[in-house]
Amino acid sequence: MQMRALALIAGIATMAGPILVRPTAAQVSDILTYRYDNARSGVNLQETILNKSNVKSGHFGKLAFRNVDGNIYAQPLIVFQAGILNRQSPVNVVIVATEHNSVYAFDADDVSSDPEPFAVSKKALWQRGLGPTIQSDGMNFLINGKSIAPGCGDLTTEIGITGTPVIKLTKHAPPKQGVIYAVAKSFSGTNVTYTLFELNLADGTTIGNPVRIKGGASGPNGMITFDPIIQLNRPALLLDSNDVLYVAFGGHCDEGDYRGWVFAYDVSDPSGPKQKPLDVWSTTFTRRSGGMSDKSGRGGIWMSGYGLATDGNNIYFSTGDGTYDIPSDSAFRELSDTVVKARFASGKFDVQDWFAPQNTTEHPDIQNELKTFDVDLGSAGPVLVPKSHLLIAAGKEGRMYLIDRDDMGKGKKASVQSFQVTRPSVAVVNQPKMAGDITYWNIHGAPVIWPLEGQMLVYVMGEEDSLKQFRLVPDSASGGWKFDPPSFLKKSNETVGLPPSNIQNDPKRKVFMPGGFLTISANGTDPGTGIVWATMPYAQNANMDVVRGVLRAFDASDVSQGELWDSEVSGNDGLGFFAKYNPPVVANGKVYVAAFQQERDDNGHHYKADGGLLSALVIYGPK
User: With contact defined as beta carbons under 8 Å apart, do 271 and 198 qualify?
Assistant: First the structure.
């Protein structure tokens, strides 16, 4: 394993010292939240350095990596010209949070080599631990000797910080000042807690008292209480313009009587967040008591790490499978497998509207089908279409929906458009009755959108699929936009990792998960600068295993022209191990990519590999 790891770091082991280029604040925008902005666009339109002429073999590659102490599910965040304790000049800072409950600040421009490539980096500007993590025995996460998710390898070795933090700037002129909000899962004594921390950007110190996340919602049959043991904060945090912070939860491997939760906190006080949430909201109320076969309740908000989105007035998110029920008392709606539009007003989190897939001749009971066969609409979050009243949603069906945000239909209206993106589902048995009886090719990485003059290009990369490019054009009939054609416009020759060719058409095999995770960089609408960046498994199934990853770059104008660059071609630019659900981040001529630690699989038990690669922030750029 040591030799393999040495091969992956060889490309930067002999590099010269760093060349530090510190841009002014006017040149770049900070990346303070998941996918660049609260609309979750996934696009950086201020990238003036990287373009199609310099992102190519021999001119672009791996510059450095920074080892950390745990897997990185949270997307890295970047603040330019930040004030850092004991630094005389402002520093461009990249923030990394790990499952070991650590938050790191690194110099985003320092690409010098670490002296000890197999140890946790000593180059952090600061590092803060946020408490003991939930540890695995190799297969089970144990709480007081009891497994909280028996046999689940979805997250391996430990659980700490999973959802992407968010940063609030309190001083916008250099040297910038601000705070980082992060949510950590901890185990101490006999207690499991989720805790909200506010950290000083300058040195990582805690501001105010950490907030224990707790509460419940009143249901038709009494109070339902949030249980931190079985809930998982996978979604990125959302901070709105009114200083309300939203923390959402789903389940951990569908274990127990979980459901979707949203907690809203007031973080306007510079002395620290309020201890009591402004409101607590639940997606469902029906209790689940029949084990894994019981599909009641649930409705988790997980979205493959995607964050709740907002247009400045309303909040949007999608939910997983479970109970869908719209009773006459609107206070007790159960909203599994929906795209939800909500608003926080007068101290309450209030649902305004929602979209639910509609019955068709081919699918006469679509809600029951989604629930029965574990086909979450909420496996990828909703993307707000720029300068429009539309959003795009996609889920485990492998289907993409174009939805009118102004009239979502409260579960009774079809989408503006919808079509299959991945392979159509295939029944494995003659009379499907349960999850696994039908094979679906999911979408986990939410689409990204490049707005151009008179059109918008949309990209998505589902399971076992190519990178597909779609086109939105103005629709005079609706005053909005429509897909034209109502299918993909272009697709890449390259695909995510595929099963061996001799079993690819066997519907009984396991689908290789989870597809690709995308980012667009461009200098506005300049076609010579548009690049789609994608991280994905190289050739294996990453569902319950840590596998080799790859970073690829494509021409955003036409993804069918072949990849511009590939981290696994030269032998010196290897990414390491794929960080599931974590998109690349592009800023100021560099690409920042999370990588998981190397692990060994012992009959389904996962352990950190002795002498293997550590989790790392990997930095790419022009050479």
Answer: no
Question: Which residue from 122, 63, 127 is spatially nearest to 95, judged by alpha carbons?
Answer: 127
**What is the number of structural domains in the chain?**
1
Q: From its phi and psi, is residue 398 left (phi > 0), alpha (psi between -120 and 50) or beta?
A: left
At a CB cut-off of 8 Å and minimum separation 6, what does 216 contact? 223, 224, 225, 226, 280, 282
**What pLDDT is stored for residue 17 in this prediction?**
38
What per-residue confidence (pLDDT) applies to 477? 82
Nearest-CA neighbor of 165 among 267, 63, 278, 298? 267
Buried b (16+ CB within 10 A) or exposed e, 125-147: bbbbebbbbbebebbbbebeeee
Residue 400 has pLDDT above 80, yes or no: yes
CATH classification of the domain holding 391? 2.130.10.10
Amino acid at 174: P
Q: Are strands 339-345 and 315-318 parallel, antiparallel or unpaired?
A: antiparallel
Which range of residues forms the domain containing residue 171?
2-622
Q: Is 593 left (phi over 0), alpha (psi -120 to 50) or beta?
A: beta
Q: What is the pLDDT of residues 567-592, one digit of tens each?
A: 999 888 999 999 999 999 999 999 99
pLDDT at 139: 63
**Rg of the chain taking only CA atoms, in angstroms:** 23
Do residues 438 and 510 lie in contact, with contact meaning Cβ atoms separated by under 8 Å? Answer: no
Q: d(Cα 445, Cα 425) in Å, to the nearest integer?
A: 19
Q: What is the pLDDT of residues 200-212, one digit of tens each?
A: 999 999 999 999 9
In the chain, count of helices (H) and strands (E)?
Answer: 2, 48
Q: How far apart are CA 256 and CA 298, in angstroms?
A: 9
Of 596, 595, 584, nearest to 621 by C-alpha is: 584
Q: Which residues contact 522 (CB under 8 A, 6 or more apart)?
A: 43, 44, 45, 47, 450, 529, 530, 531, 556
Task: Report the pLDDT value the prediction gives residue 6, as an integer from 0 to 100.
Answer: 39
